Amino acid sequence: MFNFNVCHVIVFKMLLMGGLLSCASRFTVKGPSGPLVVPLGGSVLLPCSVDSLSSLEDLEVEWKRSDSQTLIHLYQDGDIRPDSQHEDYHDRAHFFTENIKQGNFSLLMKNVRQEDEGQYTCTVHSGQESGETVVEIKDVERLIVSGSDQSLSVYVGEDVTLNCSVDSHIPPEHIEEVSWKKRVKDEHITLYRDRVEFFSDEIHRGNFSLRLKRVRTEDKGLYMCHVFAGRFSDNTTIVLQQLDATDSLLLFCFCLSYSVHHLRMSLVFCPNLIMCFAFVFWGVSEGSVSETVCCCALYILRPLLLLWTAPYINDFKGLINLKRHFNII
């Protein structure tokens, strides 16, 4: 009975000593109290420290991305190892070697990007001791408003979409204000009443594009989409270029002219007819009836006058030649 109890005591002491040795072989690495939130393009300190180090001999500090095991920074054999650092963190991750003696292994990350969101592991090895902590960058604060890279071209009477997309850590439903403005003087919003609309089904995706209906001549210009969300704001601009339908129709008429005679006829009739139709469209949308009738009558009479004088073209040539003859004499 005595021997049995002695064996239990010996086994218990061995387990206790093993546990103490195991605890002695590790030390506590401290990190932040919670996730970090960083502004886009700013700097952030990733905390990593220990209360005390028994020895700086064989000290190794390793910073890695927890998800991809990408090496961000390595301190080994008394010096940093920039050659082993991933290229995405060159000149962006700074290690404070002067604070190592105080047990501070924090990492300063500069020019924070959106893809820097995630977890980071700081692992410390010193002799037989080791430990680690995890630091999380939960959100990269940002508000990026983007639109069309190129100017938009549209014909009078058509509809056009002015693009405005928002990329932010703030949910679209929490964005305080989105405003569309045109950069011109003495412009009245009444000009756009019943002609503009949002894509309501796309707002939850950050799409605040504006649809402008029945484009008019005066709609041409520079438009700005301005977004406000808390202390963040950003904007994008879109240039709207209005095209005249007469240009394309005139080119179409010239393309149909497969002979010199047809080309001459096109030059006589097409510009006048197209201008007549243009004034009709303008009169319906914005102009007055009297102006429309007068202008249309003018452009219809012009080719008729040319047709009326066409039979006398040879007489005109004779008179011109006769005048030249007398001038020479």
Automatic annotation (TrEMBL):
Chief subcellular location: membrane
Mode of membrane association: Single-pass type I membrane protein
GO biological process entries: cell surface receptor signaling pathway; cellular response to lipopolysaccharide; immune response; negative regulation of T cell proliferation; positive regulation of T cell proliferation; T cell costimulation
Signal sequence annotation: 1-26
The entry's keywords: Cell membrane, Disulfide bond, Glycoprotein, Immunoglobulin domain, Membrane, Receptor, Signal, Transmembrane, Transmembrane helix
Domain Ig-like: start-end pairs: 41-138, 141-239
InterPro entries the UniProt entry points to: Ig-like_dom, Ig-like_dom_sf, Ig-like_fold, Ig_sub, Ig_sub2, Ig_V-set, T-cell_Activation_Regulation
Localization terms from the record: Cell membrane
GO cellular component terms, semicolon-separated: external side of plasma membrane
Protein name: Junctional adhesion molecule-like
Organism: Triplophysa rosa (Cave loach)
